[in-house]
Design goal:
The complex is a heterodimer of chains A (112) and B (112). Chain A has 112 residues and is an all-beta fold. Chain A has no helices and eleven strands. In chain A, strands 2, 4, 5, 6, 9, 10 and 11 form a seven-stranded mixed β-sheet that branches. Chain B is mainly β. Chain B is 0% helix and 54% strand. Chain B contains no helices and eleven strands. Classes of the chains: A mainly beta (112), B mainly beta (112).
């Protein structure tokens, strides 16, 4: 079974803090993704990675960065958290192109 | 501009009847389409996919239909069950098959 683990289910941080969200997969999948989900907006792609140390910007990369130092781990970094980054963050993995993506359970992040 | 549109925010169906969820897309380069189901406080779960070389794909109670000329796909659930009550997302990708573009979702409510 596909297992995608996000480090926290709920997280509360303050504006200006540097925030790290971690995602780990155990399936040896090539591709990993970070989305955010907001009411009425669906899922929007922030960044994705198709290999170790490789990354591509998605639709809404501003205010975020990512790190993939090992194949199984993909981190999302909020450099200086702002209240408009309060959201549900979802990590996904994909074996390769034209295959389904598999999601973790999400991290609900609140920035106060 | 939305490339993947789910024009019905909600749908209510009685148990045992058919649920039909619709999705329209604008980008003719899309050639891989997926449906996901999402319960509150969980990540999206992959349901079924279809590539552009097909017009129908079935998996148990779920069938996806693709009409390329109309740039339209639909998900049929027969028979509908109360456990099917969730938010359903349509998604599409281009020939690279990596980054997904999601619709905003349709909330399905199945009453017993």
């Amino acid at each position: 079974d596909v297992k995608v683990t996000q480090s926290s289910r709920y997280l509360v941080k303050r504006t200006g803090e540097k925030v790290f969200l971690e995602c780990v997969q155990d399936m040896d999948h090539e591709n990993m993704f970070w989305y955010r989900q907001d009411p009425g907006l669906g899922l929007r792609l922030i960044y994705f990675s198709y290999d170790v140390k490789m990354k591509e910007k998605g639709d809404i990369p501003e205010g975020y960065s990512v790190s993939r130092e090992k194949k199984e781990r993909f981190s999302l970094i909020l450099e200086s958290a702002s209240t408009n980054q309060t959201s549900m963050y979802l990590c996904a993995t994909q074996y390769r192109g034209n295959q389904p993506q598999h999601f973790g359970d999400g991290t609900r992040l609140s920035i106060l | 501009d939305q490339q993947v549109k789910q024009n019905s925010p909600s749908l209510s169906v009685q148990e045992g009847r058919i649920s039909i969820l619709n999705c329209d897309y604008t980008n003719s380069m899309f050639d891989y389409f997926l449906w996901y189901k999402k319960y509150p406080a969980e990540g999206p779960t992959f349901l079924i996919s279809i590539s552009s070389i097909k017009d129908k794909n079935e998996d148990g109670r779920f069938t996806v239909f693709l009409n390329k000329s109309a740039k339209h796909l639909s998900l049929h659930i027969v028979p509908s069950q109360p456990g099917d009550s969730a938010v359903y997302f349509c998604a599409a990708s281009d020939q690279a098959g990596t980054a997904l573009i999601f619709g905003k979702g349709t909330t399905l409510s199945v009453s017993s």
